[in-house]
What does this fold into?
Amino acid sequence: MATIRATCMDCGDVELTTADVRVRVCIEDNAGSYHFRCPHCAMAVVKPAEPRIVDLLVASGVELSTWRLPAELYEPHFGDRINHDDLLDFHHILDDDGWFDTLESMVNQ
It folds into this structure.
C-alpha cells in the first residue's frame, strides 16, 4: 500500500495510506478533488486536484468516485433573482401563525 503525503491546515504535513484518501471527479467539467480525515486532529480536509494529481492518486490505489452537477443548474429561471430584502420579507411572513395562508394567497393571485 502506497504512502501519500498531504497537508492538514492545522497539523501540517501528514502521511496517509491509499485507504485514507478518496478522489472525486465531476463528470461535466472534470473538476477533481481529494479528501481525507487528518490522522492527528481528525479534521476533514478537502483539496482541489488537477487531472495529473487525480491520475497519480488513482494509479497508487486511491478510490475514485464521480459525481454530476445538480440538474437545477440547467433549469430555466424566470423573474428577478431573490435578494436580501426578499429573504427578510419571507422571514417576517414565517413569523406569523398564518404564514401558510399568506403564502398561498400570494401564489394564487
About this structure: The chain has a mean pLDDT of 94. The longest strand covers residues 3-8. Strands lie at 3-8, 12-17, 21-26, 32-37, 44-49, 63-67. DSSP finds three helices and six strands in the chain.
